[in-house]
Design brief:
By secondary structure, the chain is α+β, with helices and mostly antiparallel strands. The chain is built from 5 helices and 7 strands. The chain has a 7-stranded mixed β-sheet, with helices on both faces. The radius of gyration is 15 Å and the shape is globular. Helix 1 packs across helix 3.
């Protein structure tokens, strides 16, 4: 399975996965308001086909994520959201791997992301992919992480 550019219809389905204010904050971030509509979600995450991707199986939409161009050297992973029916099955890992590859293909030297400190499963995933916390940009609630293209080695599993 591969990622593909997300459509408005995909985003409408993703909006149904966020069934509470806590889900919305955890999965979509603090700037996305709840309750939400697909139109509102698209506006609040600056949705466009060049920054939004879906991970699809033959039968369903399994995951969604954004790869946002910060500048020529840096991209930002955002809103890695897994369909509740697919959680715990490696969808987020595969989606991240493919988004990382896409960023490197686009010439990125570095990838950043934010994750809530209480979301230890997500932090463990990102660390296994080679991301490292940047304490100077983190706080009590949010962990800011970076992945440098030149620092990658065989110990990370984003390439597998």
């Amino acid at each position: 399975m591969n990622i593909e550019q997300a459509t408005a219809a995909d985003l409408a389905e993703v909006s149904t996965w966020l069934s509470s204010a806590d889900d919305c904050r955890t999965w979509a971030g603090p700037r996305v308001s709840y309750p939400l509509t697909p139109v509102q979600l698209a506006a609040e995450i600056m949705f466009c086909p060049d920054n939004a991707y879906c991970y699809k199986t033959q039968s369903s939409l399994a995951g969604f994520g954004q790869l946002i161009n910060i500048n020529d050297a840096c991209y930002h992973l955002a809103r890695i959201i897994t369909n509740p029916a697919w959680r715990g099955q490696g969808v987020a890992r595969e989606l991240c791997r493919q988004l990382i590859k896409l960023a490197w293909q686009r010439g990125a030297e570095q990838l950043s992301l934010n994750v809530y400190r209480h979301n230890v499963r997500a932090q463990a995933l990102y660390q296994s992919l080679g991301f490292c916390e940047q304490p100077e940009k983190s706080d009590a609630n949010m962990v800011y992480m970076l992945l440098d293209n030149e620092d990658l080695n065989n110990e990370t599993d984003w390439q597998n």
